[in-house]
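Hi team,

As requested, here is the filled-out complex form for the NDP run. I kept the field names the same as last time so the parser does not choke. Let me know if anything looks off before we queue the next batch.

— J.
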Amino acid sequence: MARVLIIGAGGVGNVVAKKCAQNDGVFSEICLASRTVAKCDKIAADIKTHNPNSKTVVTTAKVDADNVPELVALIKQYNPVLVINVALPYQDLTIMDACLETGVHYLDTANYEPKDVAKFEYSWQWAYRQRFEAAGLMALLGCGFDPGATNVFTAYHAKHYFDEIHFLDIVDCNNGDHGKAFATNFNPEINIREITANGRYWENGMWVETAPLEIAQDIYYPKVQTRKSFVLYHEELESLVINFPSIKRARFWMTFGEAYIKHLSVLEAVGMTAITPVNFQGQQIIPLEFLKAVLPAPESLAENYTGKTCIGVQAKGIKDGKEVVHFVYNVCDHAECYREVQAQGVSYTTGVPAMIGAMLMLEGTWMKAGVYNVEEFNPDPFIAAMNTWGLPVNELADLELVH
Ligand code: NDP
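And here is what came back:
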């Protein structure tokens, strides 16, 4: 029975709050706090309507998570044991600072990214290791689906099927349709910064850089379909190649439809994805932030979303001297997510693992002072919990899907 503070009330925050309320044996009290408190209140009201039997006591609060003293005041007042950060990557460090100051554990789903540089890496958060260790606190980084479940799948491969993993391919297919000409499935600013950046993958001990969306292949996604997929740099690659040093090549693939790519290239060509300020009628505005304001909010896509996501990890390597290939994956249906928690599949596949990671920390199954990535823990309880909490895990042996 634990009291937890959730920060961020967007697409992912909605799912985390609702899954915690379903798991009321663990999450006895949650406070949902964000910049716009009305969004927190709406989620709290939804929980009352859709899950009236939940025993979780849900409260809401307003907080600016860029402001450490404000965060510290809220944490001291609410007194949680853990903060789940599902605001934006820009707030990771301020929330970690506030957790250290108040003696509270920490979990997030995306690594720190400075607002004025489109660059994300773990160095900033790994630098907190000694401080968390010394304080007897734990920070669990990147506990969504990718990163998150994909790190767990890699650890699961390594534990059960391989002596050495040599080739790792993480594949992320959204085969859904939200009916809009152009929209992003999670925060548009973060999403567009990720996709318009150069691609990068790990090969023979070094990073190989590509132009954005330069490398593509058709990949078959079980229970979904074959889709053209592109190499992107994705944050879990950074920790996985360190924690599994036998990996010779690690890549991350994501599907994009032609219409999506066409819209994105036009927006980029006309300067709408830039993050440097421009003067507009005497006011400094950042084009990407303005674009975010006119695009549909990710949570608004949920109601009419159809189709499925398929996210998985293919590993190739050696077991008992023989070559092995194995695929671990989940398939998630957008419309079912909407029926369950009024969310689309991308928010759902991120929010459920965040709840599971928090549960494993609170139960002591995954509790160790310091700053950790998800693959550093035993994957089995996480996989078992995915099967229980709405993200069933499938496996496929001896079929090479990614070449
Ligand atoms: P949204 O933009 O829908 O929601 C973000 C929420 O954070 C909003 O409620 C927003 O408030 C709030 N917020 C932003 N800035 C502040 C601030 N300074 N103080 C307090 N609250 C703030 O994003 P998503 O829900 O789609 O994504 C949430 C996180 O999940 C992101 O970090 C994203 O990168 C990550 N993610 C991780 C994935 C994974 O698989 N690991 C996949 C998808 C997302 P307001 O409403 O006022 O704007």
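Two things worth flagging: The chain has a mean pLDDT of 97. Residues 305 and 401 are 27 Å apart (CA to CA).

Thanks,
J.
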